[in-house]
Amino acid sequence: MKKLKVIELFAGVGGFRLGLEQTKHFEIVWSNQFEPSTKAQHASQVYEARFGAKHHSNKDISEVATADIPDADMLVGGFPCQDYSVATTRQNAKGLIGKKGVLWWTIHHILSGKKNPPKYLFLENVDRLLKSPSNQRGRDFAVMLKSLDDLGYAVEWRVINAAEYGMPQRRRRIFFIGYHKSTPTYKNLQNSEASEWVHTQGTFAKAFPVASTLTKKHSFSITEDLVALSERFNIGEKLSPFQNSGVFIRGRVYTEKTSASYDGKRTVLKDILIKKEVLDEFYISPDEYAKWDYLKGAKKEVRTAKSGFAYNYSEGRMIFPDALDNASRTIITGEGGKSPSRFKHVVQSTKGLRRLAPLELERLNMFPDNHTKLEGISNTKRAFFMGNALVVGVVKKIGKALHEQINS
Q1: Is residue 269 part of a domain?
Q2: What proportion of the chain, given as a percentage, has pLDDT over 90?
């Protein structure tokens, strides 16, 4: 069977590519990775080292001409979480663009500029997207859904915690898939009961089954133009109307809160640890134990802001060292480096407490061992990559289910 051609944006070190290529059903025909805040393009270097420089772009995507991006069946990417509000006047709404530098609008520009736009979209973001910004809960997601609706796409979404399906890291992310109105899948969704799509018929339901839920189901319309939506959506409400699962087609939202249904094998932190001793740099000096224990510990104390304002600060105790018989906590971009931190992982070994090595962080995201190991790339940078990455196993399962959905 012919492979689906894929454009990969915001590629990082290639998590989407790894997951999709492992299914044997997808072929990346063009990729882009550019880090605007740094001169050295380390992630792009790793990507090229693993997948080759051919058809890979290391240029600011907002400066890449749409004509230079090949046609493909699908566009994928984990784009940055930003302010997606619309920055045009009503008079100029037809020439709609969002704020300069906001990369969602770069995706929108590519999709709208293609004579033959991708029939499928497969995108990822942090789950707070469903409830941002804080003064207009859910507005950003509503703007994204409506902008895709205007371009002819239906959307289904799900917040997935990889550990709830047996994977080694408690990493919660929102994934959403777009189906162009020219596809049979769009028509199948249109002719289905939305609740059935969420629970059994949809791509996410097939990849990651859900339990039946008793939470209130919610349905509403999004029909305003993008400018009005940006200005008024959910004004004055404390909660976002979007739950962790849902579909959106032809201006209508259906959403509900679902829970994972899984009783298979589970990988825990001890399963991914290097069996032999790691480099000395990852061991914590006993002199530093007290600092780590304080940062990981419970606190109730008065702190003073730079302005001189005194306030009460409190936080709960974290498990220290990390539990080996459970999936790991979420890797963050600040995971690397020797300095004591509340959020870095620390495990007990025969030689004492130590931080996780880059290879172990790769395993928590289900990357191949030493995927990011490259001359000139520090261990701190390798940890940063994994803080930005996604869990490859999640992408693989969704990719497999999507391919089956398209060919059903």
Answers
A1: no
A2: 83
User: Where residue 195 sits, what CATH number does that domain have?
Assistant: 3.40.50.150
Residue 260: burial class (beta carbons within 10 Å; 0-12, 13-18, 19+): middle
Q: Can you list the alpha helix ranges (DSSP code H) found in 282-341? A: 289-296
Give the model's confidence band at 36: pLDDT under 50 very low, under 70 low, under 90 confident, else very high.
confident
The per-residue pLDDT for range 302-347, each reduced to its tens digit, is 999 888 899 998 999 999 999 999 999 999 999 999 999 999 999 9
Q: What is the C-alpha separation between 45 and 53, in angstroms, rounded?
A: 9
- What is the set of active-site residues? 81
**Nearest-angstrom CA–CA distance, 137 and 143:** 12
pLDDT-based confidence at residue 214 (cuts at 50, 70, 90): low
- Residue 358's pLDDT band, with cuts at 50, 70 and 90, is very high
Nearest one of 407, 376, 333, 350 to 37, comparing CA atoms: 333
pLDDT score, position 278: 92
Indicate whether 376 and 248 sit together in one domain. no
Owning domain of residue 178: 4-262+394-406
8 A C-beta contact, residue 382 and residue 359: no
- Taking a C-beta distance cutoff of 8 angstroms, is the pair 50, 13 a contact? yes
**Cβ atoms of residues 344 and 296 within 8 Å:** no
Give the count of domains, the chain.
2
Whether omega for the bond prior to residue 321 falls within 30 degrees of 0, making it cis, is: yes
Q: What is the CATH number of the domain that holds 365?
A: 3.90.120
Residues 402, 361 share a domain: no
Residues 256 and 281 in one domain: no
